[in-house]
Amino acid sequence: MADKITRAQIQRTYSSAETRERILRINFLSELLGSCIISEGYEVPPRLAASIKLSSNGAGLVGRVQSNANPRNECTLSAFLHVYWNELLVDPDETSIEAIEKVISDEIKKERVLFPYIYGRELYDKAFSELRDNNDTLTHKDTMALLAGSPQGVFQLHDYVTGPWGLMRSQEIRYCPPSVWVPLYHCDDLSCMRLHNVLLETGSSKIAKVRNKMREVLSRQDSAEGEWGDFFRELIADCVNPFSWSHSAGIPSLLGDSFSIAEMRLIMHDLLNMTQGKLRALLSELGQEVKEAEKFTEGLNEAQMLQLILLCRDEEIIDTLDSLILSGSILIPSAEIRRSPRSVRATGYFGLVPECASRGVRFLGGSSQALLRSRHLISNLFDLGNPSQRERLEWLIRGTDGTSFQEQLDQFVCGGPLDEALGSLIFDSGANLEAAEKFVGIGPRARERLSNEESLRRAITWRLGIDGPAESDVLVDFRQYGARLRELAMRTHTYASADQADIRAVASNFFVKVEGLLQEYLKLATWALLRDHYSTSGFSYAPEEAVAFTVQELGRDQADVHFSEDGKWTLFPMIRGFDILGRRLGDLKSDEDTRRSSDDYPKILRSTSPYTFLFKHIHPFLDLDSGARSRIVAMLSTAAQKLQSGKVDEIRNVLQHTNPKFPTQDEVLGAINAAETVLAEAEEAGFLPVVSRLRESQTDSYGRRTLTLGTANGKTLRLVRPSSYYLTGLPVLSEAQYVLRSAVYENSSEVLRLSIREDSEYAKRWSDYPKRRGVRGKSGNRHVEE
């Protein structure tokens, strides 16, 4: 048996950089062709076979396989698809790579070879509506029916990008390989959040049969397969740094899944106009002369735009995204995090996944990486081998405890707020600031949008994985107006005309805030306690949808109160609404109509299991502890009473309109006190939309974790993990969320929590997702609890 060729031997034999590059390209072209879908009648184009020059080993292999049943063109391409066994089967120097690229490009454009377009909703929704069953494999007939009419898939290997425009070369090297395994469906187990892959079947063509025959022949070779895999991995590592903090393989998923077609057009416009003509030049090679960016993109679909965007460098794409987001051209709500909902594979050594938020783009891995990344940044800012730079760093951390420089540096980084510590080092000099911007990937146009030091510091630390200061308290303006109104009301017992004018001016703002906050209170409480989060839209809060839901739930059978469908509610129906909601909840009973069907229980709980299921009713209120239920009903009922006895509605109307009877001091103060008391109770209970984020996480030697969620004004919730409750569906603890601290589940320390689903292009794109065949109407964007 011949000796297996080693990586070292391969490197010595193919020492030329040009030859290695050609071998690498042949391997990627082979992988692209080997991963496509073709029809049963597909025949290898003669010009493709003519472009391939086989090595002596490849020619010998073809000689053993070729026959009347196995035509030469198919045998030649089959050897090309294998690339190597112990030795190369293809001659890298004599093979016409450019000709092969052109043939492949033409085959893609003519749709003689197909790639599935895996991004967005197209194939997912089509599979749900047209395929009868959720199978893990599709027949070739069903595969072709599924792909019919859908755009060509966009994938990238090295600088080769496939898509509707054929095969193109990007200015950036990425590794997002095509696959015949496609993420296509969610199963009917409501607790299963996994997007299941389906194997697409290519046609049983001549080339497919020859490839099978050649595999048989190769398996009987007198030598083992050479160490070509190790050789290729080294070549790839030379092209893309696997230790990069912004690994490029995640970019296609971020673009393809996180932005609507309208937003993709904005991205395309920007890149066409802001890449110094480079993207326009690439398009001109396709015969596409772009005079007006907006007009050019009008008729393009998602796949066409995605392929063209991927021709640009990552730094150009990221700077464009950052600039559009920071300028508000692409509107991302403050609590929204955009990432692919398809659970895409993390990439690079650090397992990074890109995401977009209102602050731009960042690449995140595990939570512990923020410290590692921060230390890496410090090593970029200060060369400790340079005496003057080391001395400067020693001076900056001089007040920190520690018996040595390294102990001081460790304490400086770990002993207090990380964003503040880094900020002092980053802004120590212009050179440090410039280095930090480059390290985290803030481009020149994004830099222009970050106009002051505080916004720039937050942008840098946020990209390091440090979320930094909490959101501002939504009650700040309400409290300030309340304090000012109280001050004016207490100034004198008898109000002159000037006093009345001052009070009216401040009262107008105060009562606008009261109305807004009471509406949010009523909407969130109704949505949280009555909507079936487990089997509908998931444990999330959608403010726009909550309006219609509240109107439906509270307006039912009410002759004397009206909630307008546009959400413009006055104080009177809202005050009555708290009493209506309290009575509605108090009347709920745990019976056959409200208990969840056992068919909807997670499959893991249908037999002996260490877990306890919390969501046993279709109304979340009934899953709460009896004490919690009583307290919530009492809080809602007394809220209505306090607002009525405080004459909040009456005082608001009197102050809003010119009225000869001006309220007394006691009446004004009574309205202020009633509103403040009701909203303070709502905040404490968690029924105001106040964002909570993960503030602290501690783990002991047994793996027990204590996690603290907290709001901007210090309201906290401590949770212990792992939990004995099956929490599938509740938001992951690392996400921004609303924590309803008073809504404690029965026999549990867990509380009802909701992720935030604000109205946006991203939310619309992924509404009614996941879809579950056989569970019609039971879909939603849900998460697996940590």
Fold blueprint:
Blueprint (H helix, E strand, L loop, with lengths): L6 H7 L3 H18 L11 H6 L4 H10 L6 H11 L14 H13 L12 H9 L9 H8 L8 E8 L2 E11 L4 E5 L10 E4 L6 H14 L8 H12 L11 H8 L2 H14 L3 H7 L8 H5 L4 H8 L4 H14 L25 E5 L2 E5 L4 H13 L5 H10 L8 H10 L3 H9 L3 H11 L3 H6 L3 H11 L12 H14 L7 H34 L9 E2 L1 H12 L16 H17 L24 E2 L12 H20 L2 H9 L8 H21 L7 E7 L5 E6 L5 E6 L3 E2 L10 E8 L6 E6 L4 H5 L21
Helix % is 40-55%
The end-to-end distance, rounded to whole angstroms, is 52 Å
Number of E-state strands: 14
- Strand arrangement across the biggest beta sheet: 7-14-13
* Unreliable residue runs: 776-784
Total count of helical runs of at least 4 residues = 31
Largest sheet: 3 strands, mixed
Shape, please? globular
- Share of β-strand residues: 5-15%
- Return the structural class: mainly alpha
| Structural Rg | 32 Å
Mean pLDDT: 91
General description of the model:
By secondary structure, the protein is mostly helical. The chain contains 31 helices and 14 strands. The strands form 6 sheets. Strands 7-14-13 form a 3-stranded mixed sheet. A hairpin with a 5-residue loop joins β10 and β11 (716-721). α27 packs antiparallel against α28 (626-645). It is globular and about 105 Å long. 41% of the residues are buried. The model is unreliable at 776-784 (pLDDT under 50).
